[in-house]
Write a structure and sequence with these properties.
By secondary structure, this protein is of the alpha/beta class. The protein is built from 14 helices and 7 strands. The protein has a 5-stranded mixed β-sheet. Helix 6 crosses helix 7.
């Protein structure tokens, strides 16, 4: 398994003789580069749509290259290797109040992004719904941010490029994003895989350092929360591949290798974030994909029979459970090695399984069918427009093919924050308690 490894902009390399003037680029240049990147990507997206409509594949290829060039142009700006302060100055300032408000920085896949932060999403949504959320504010991290007293977190590609726009955090997450950049089953169509989002995080940290100064920026990063929610889209692509390429459904699953490969990459990312002075991390597990409407629909198609009584596909949930169990174990082990890292694992799988097992007890009327979609269980085709959605989404566990409704996300956010109604969803701490340990 190959992985990109990043050099954090605030790692202490031990070289104190570097001339900063030969490396520094101004924050004005960074803002201009971000602006050029957004404009080029927008222009490429508009041209891409027109090219597809006119049936010109060569033009499509050229425009995709434009988007990649726009992304790499920002990379070519020179980087400044910044040095951290000594340990004594760091420890003396940790007990004082943070000099800037705490923010939340979100990384993830379709569990955190409704397509707003995904280039060409209307064209490349593929196995996902065109409208994967009942409003961008309905995702779990945005609901959790409200508990923290933070305003809505802007997406990376919709930020205004100013330092004030970063002070409450950013959402780097992207629908279609995967942990693995490529694999034998499927190549990700997204430019914002886990590795790509890490690079964007490090660029943002460097911008904060240049604008605020090294010590205030480092303190801001230490007092901020980093929310990671990956793996769901890896499994969706993995399952989709096996559905389309195997007559023996279960024999193709690499039940041991695949979950551990994903967890290994996730733990590398956590360590990279730690090296960049991140100290507060909320790491989310994967929801029970075996209960999602699309999974039930595909299982019926593969097995050539319909079981109206079957609520979930246990074989698939076991794969997801393996990932969650290994990730939780690795997080506990990492806490021993890095005692100053405040990290918690939130098992959304268990929360949703409690709801599916007793939907009426939590106020839900339907635990199988999607609120927005067409066909059996609303899962033949995803949600193409909110106009085809059910009248009361709060009565459904699922919004569309794979995403829970806002009502479910609200219960999960409440539990992640305070431990109610799902008392043991987050281990070893609730998010509220995690933040208390940092003060």
């Amino acid at each position: 398994m190959t992985s990109l490894h990043f050099t954090s902009p605030i790692r202490n390399t031990g070289n104190h003789e570097t001339n900063p003037r030969s490396f520094v680029h101004s924050s004005h240049e960074v803002s201009k580069a971000l602006s050029r990147k957004r404009k080029a990507a927008t222009a490429a997206a508009m041209g891409f749509t027109a090219a597809v409509a006119r049936g010109k594949p060569l033009m499509v290829a050229v425009l995709m290259v434009v988007a990649v060039i726009a992304d790499s142009a920002y990379e070519r700006l020179p980087r400044r290797p910044l040095e951290t302060g000594d340990a004594s100055s760091s420890s003396s300032s940790s007990s004082s109040s943070p000099p800037v408000p705490m923010g939340i920085f979100i990384m993830g896949d379709s569990s955190v992004d409704c397509g707003d932060n995904t280039l060409f999403y209307p064209l490349l949504h593929d196995a996902f719904s065109l409208v994967p959320c009942n409003g961008s504010d309905s995702t779990l991290p945005h609901l959790l941010a409200k508990h923290m007293g933070l305003p809505r977190t802007p997406s990376f590609y919709n930020q205004n490029g100013t330092i004030t726009g970063l002070m409450n955090g950013l959402n780097f997450g992207s629908a279609l994003a995967t942990i693995l950049s490529t694999n034998s089953h499927r190549s990700s169509l997204s430019f914002q895989t886990l590795d790509q989002q890490l690079r964007q995080v490090f660029d943002t940290i460097q911008l904060l350092q240049l604008q605020l100064g090294l010590d205030p920026a480092n303190q801001f990063i230490k007092s901020s929360v980093f929310y990671l929610s990956f793996g769901k889209d890896d499994y969706i692509h993995f399952l989709d591949y096996n559905n389309n390429n195997s007559s023996s459904f279960s024999s193709e699953f690499e039940a041991r290798n695949f979950p551990r490969a994903l967890v290994d990459e996730m733990m590398k990312a956590v360590r990279d974030l730690y090296d960049a002075n991140v100290r507060n991390i909320v790491c989310m597990g994967i929801l029970p994909l075996g209960c999602a409407p699309k999974t039930l629909f595909q299982w019926r198609s593969v097995m050539m029979r319909e079981n109206k009584e079957r609520i979930c596909i246990d074989e698939i949930n076991m794969l997801v459970s393996e990932y969650n169990a290994v990730l939780r174990e690795q997080i506990y082990d990492l806490k021993i090695v890095l005692p100053d890292l405040h990290i918690t694992f939130c098992d959304v799988y268990q929360g949703i399984m409690d709801i599916v097992a007793n939907p009426n007890g939590y106020g839900f009327e339907d635990s199988r069918a999607a609120c927005c979609g067409t066909g059996w269980l609303g899962a033949a085709v995803g949600c193409l427009s909110e106009s085809v959605a059910c009248n009361r989404s709060s009565g459904h566990v699922w919004w569309d093919l794979y995403n829970p409704s806002e009502a479910v996300n609200t219960l999960l956010a409440d539990s992640a924050w305070s431990g109610h109604p799902f008392r043991y969803m987050c281990h070893p701490l609730t998010v509220q308690d995690l933040l208390r340990t940092t003060t």
